[in-house]
Amino acid sequence: MMNEKKDPAQQLYEIGLGAGRSKQSPQTNYVHYCYHSQDEDQNDTIPLYDNLLFMTSLLRSRTTENVLEAKELLPRLLKFQNREEGSDKGNFPVYLHEYPACRDKLQAAHVLPVFYWLIKQFQPILGADLSKQLTEASELALNYALKTHAEKPAPFHLAIKIAGAAKAFGDLWGKKHFAETGEHLLAGLKKESEEPDFGTWYCPPYVADMLVGLQMVYPSLPESPWNHFWKLLSETWHRPSCSYIGPGIKDFQDNEEANVTLYDYFLGYFSGQLSYRSFSDHPRQLQGLLVQPIKDPFPELPYPFEKSGSIAGLKWTLKQYPAYAVNVVEKRGAVSPQFEKGYYPLRVVWGDFNKSHSFVCQGGTSTLIEHQFTDKGVDLYFTFEEPPLPDDKDKNREIQFFCDYDEANKILVGGLPATTFQIDDQITIKSNGFTIGVKISFVEGDARYFGHIMLGNRPAQVSLKGNHRFSAFDWQLFLRTVRRTVPCKMKAEITFTPS
To answer: How many C-beta atoms surround the C-beta of residue 308 within 10 A?
Structure first.
């Protein structure tokens, strides 16, 4: 792992190559994987993007056998670029069998950074003929991406990739119109990122896309116009647990830990330590090949550290300590379906690079959740303005907390193991020397609730398919409504005690 005496970038390349080999078919020599599989375990589809990354990993290994394999694979992949006159000319299919259809209109935005680094770093190895084919494909894809973005602006995180590619390719080829277009787009995107309510960089996968786009243009982010982004990266990353701790807007869970994305490989590389979960075999490890080496030291925060802001008009605050970190985000009204499953009014993380833990508030039926920090932790205030639905199994769970299921995590009520609790009971979660206390009480109104502690899954869980479709990865603590008045207001006093 990263604490071994080994070059971090080389380590990312090696696990990427291993991930590609594990999904490679001996019959086709392609990487087979399906992004959209549900309960089936078989992956027959051939994703173009992952195969381009796998081909890059073969080149990076610099062994003769792997380089020859890469040079045989690249022209085969380039033939799947749509060359027909029409709206998709220059784009690529998501899966090879879909050719010439291009179901993702922004697929070229993902492909362009791969092409850029192939040309910039491996042109002598590829040779004149392959380099020419790759350059022609890159220019066609870049023209397509810029045209598509002009017709309908891409989401911010993909617009960064398109703008970065235009600037980078323009400089590489000496084509002024591409470079100037990229500079213009980047200037506009930077201005947008400085708006008070800007929220794209609070979604880890989107952060990774931004980094991919910017690294093509700026070898040093701290010395670039985007140094505010570099600063934010350090402020929303909890080094001890190798975890994102910014506002939980679109943050997901995979089994017992946070879902690993390219963001984790970037931040693990920047901070000098990859989490153990990053090494689990998965095609996403191929994306680590997009992390480019840097010489800039990643800022270390002075603990305790606090930062506040707003996103979509909702106030949020994070606090970081050596033993744990906590983030709270207001809730006002219904959450957009786009963000509902990845939205956390409260998220607490602790642990180390071997294993991270989390305690979260997610779901429930309250229309308003506010927060107030205390000397020992944070108080959450839940307001209910709609009548309860006691006959609905899910919608009568009006306050919900989740803690990852692990042998190290013990839940006690009044100091004893229990599966139920009442209002004003003291609930304690003990985990490897870290203790969380939870006490729920009334503030306004009258109600009768019954508390349950049982296995379940937070809404943000993404692993409930295949062999895991009936698995439980969390302890859940929730209040079930028996009756209550409208309106009703309740408080959850949450305390944190590191050993």
So the answer is: 10
- Report how far residue 343's alpha carbon sits from residue 331's, in angstroms, rounded to the nearest whole number: 9
Say if residues 226 and 214 touch (Cβ distance below 8 Å): yes
Q: What are phi and psi of 65, to 5 degrees?
A: -60, -45
Spatial distance between the Cα atoms of 124 and 131, rounded to a whole number of angstroms:
8
Gyration radius (Cα) of the chain, Å: 24
8-state DSSP, 24? B
User: Could you tell me the two tokens for 291?
Assistant: 């992390």
Buried b (16+ CB within 10 A) or exposed e, 269-286: bbbebbbebbeeebbbbb
CA-to-CA distance for 430 and 320, rounded, in angstroms? Answer: 19
Half-sphere exposure of 275 (CA within 13 A, CB side): 28
Asked, as a colleague might, if the bond just before 219 is cis with ω within 30 of 0, I would say: no
Q: What angle do helix axes 64-78 and 48-61 make, rounded to 10 degrees?
A: 150
What string of DSSP letters covers 92-109?
--SBGGGTT--S-TTHHH
Token pair for 301: 């925060």
- Annotated domain spans of the chain: 8-290, 305-498
Average pLDDT for residues 80-107, to the nearest whole number? 95
Dihedral (CA of 373, 378, 380, 381) sign: negative
**What is the number of alpha carbons within 13 Å of residue 138 lying toward its C-beta?**
24
Alpha carbon distance 395, 399 (integer Å)? 10
CATH of 8-290, one of 1.10.150, 1.50.10, 1.10.287, 2.60.40: 1.50.10
Residue 337: CB atoms within 10 A of its CB come to: 7
Taking the model in full, what pTM does it have? Answer: 0.94
Place of tokens 């009568």: 396
CA dihedral 379, 383, 389, 390 (to 10 degrees): 40
- How far separated are the first and last CA of the chain, in Å rounded? 27
CA distance 446 to 484: 6
Question: What letter would DSSP give residue 221?
Answer: S
Residue given tokens 């020859």 in the structure block: 68
Q: Give the model confidence (pLDDT) of 187-232 as tens digits.
A: 999 999 998 888 899 999 999 999 999 999 999 999 999 999 999 9
Query: 3-class SS at 114?
Result: helix
Beta-ladder partners of 420:
452
| 280-334 pLDDT tens trace | 888 899 999 999 999 999 999 999 999 999 988 889 999 999 999 999 999 998 7
Closest residue by Cα to residue 213 from 157, 283, 130, 281: 157
